[in-house]
Amino acid sequence: MRVAVLDMGLGNLLSIRRGIERASTGKGVPSPGAGAGSRPQAGPSAEVTIAQRDSEAHSADAIVIPGVGAFRDGALAIMERFGGTVERIRKGEAPALGICLGMQLLFTRSFEGGEYLGLNLIPGDVVKLPAAVKVPHMGWNSIRILREGVLVRGIPDGEHFYFVHSYYCRPEDWGVAVAEAEYGVPIPAIVEKGAIFGTQFHPEKSGEAGRLVIRNFLEAAKR
Amino acid sequence: MLTKRIIPCLDVDRGRVVKGIRFVNLRDAGDPVEQALEYERQGADEIVFLDITASSDNRETVIDMVRKTAYELSIPFTVGGGIRSYSDVRRTLMAGADKVSLNTAAVQNPSLIKEGAEIFGSQCIVVAIDAKRAGEGKWEVYTHGGRRATGMDAIEWASKAEEMGAGEILLTSMDFDGSKDGYDLELTRRVSESVNIPVIASGGAGNPAHIYEALTAGKADAALAASIFHYAEYTVGEVKAYLMERGVPVRVVPIPPKPEKGLPSGSPGGVGEDAKAGKR
Known about the structure:
heterodimer; A: 223 residues; alpha/beta; four-stranded mixed sheet; globular; B: 280 residues; 11 strands; 33% helix
């Protein structure tokens, strides 16, 4: 299968590319002392393209919207460069995974540095974390699984993932949240709506647990 | 619940690890990537690379190391040491580092913090502070690897760095660094209480109890250590098990067997206890 990572010109995409490749081949970091049988199971084989424009993402079976930079810049770049791809995602023709800022872009609007419109694929706002906690929310936080979902298959309740963000999503319908993390307020950690997926954490930086989340996405997108 | 982070630090000279894990059968004990991967297996939450190369024509070597590390590692890593300009910040992050750590350059040119944070986000910009006691409840900031006093107050500087856009403070006690007597808890607590961004305690870790103190009494969000991991006195997993037993929230991964003690494999290429800088 072909996976396109949308390059919005906001940072290095090597980590996410490698994250997908590791999930695809199962080539992770095997724990020492464990037998060969414990080697992570390989996921669907995926060929990763870093897409700079719509035409390069056109034939992809799955889309990954990466997560670095500010909301305004990300929203501007994705609307300018990838209008056709966004339409495919909206129509359910291409499964999509938004990571961190990439997940926030799926929502209606954000209040990061002003008020900016997002893709409105999932109704809701993106707002600043409460002042009572240290911002950014940085580090490994545990998630609580709220309901069955695609990305949490095989993930135990309480598993840890690496978060780095200062704003969080407030969906209109909390039913889209498959898992949440607690940081002053409940934060949607994983959202799923049809073939649209999002993780507030960085699966590509979350070791073996993150690898499994990406693999789950690839498995779902393969169909 | 957000966990406290354990961060091993690797000192790197001309692209080779000079302080790293010695008692593990790595194919190449001087290879920064292999060392980082070993720490990832042990359950490290992040890795810090501290470039201690004296010469200034070293950026290409560092950038190459960053690229290779980003390719293999699946936990975040920070690169510090020798990052002087916005161009250094940009190149290091674009090569795949998750964060850069600014020390002397941030003091000399605080707008570098702002510029980096505005373009790449605060989460990418760590301000490293080397602090030395200067009297009761006072600490002075030093730069140039601890060789130059600045006259600046460490607690005030931490707040200023936050104001300029730093996403994190890496706080090293020069008095305690290398002592293995524990972190400077008072300094750590004072800085942690005065900023609203995460603080990484550094300098003085000799055993898991010291790390426990830094994360509880010291109120640090993360603890950085080198020697105790470097000499395989404790694995990261053992430290985390100790913390968990005492109620500190940590991310626990299955503890791998303790590496057998022995000579480092392969040619160590300058690996030794006589690392020229950064005691940590």
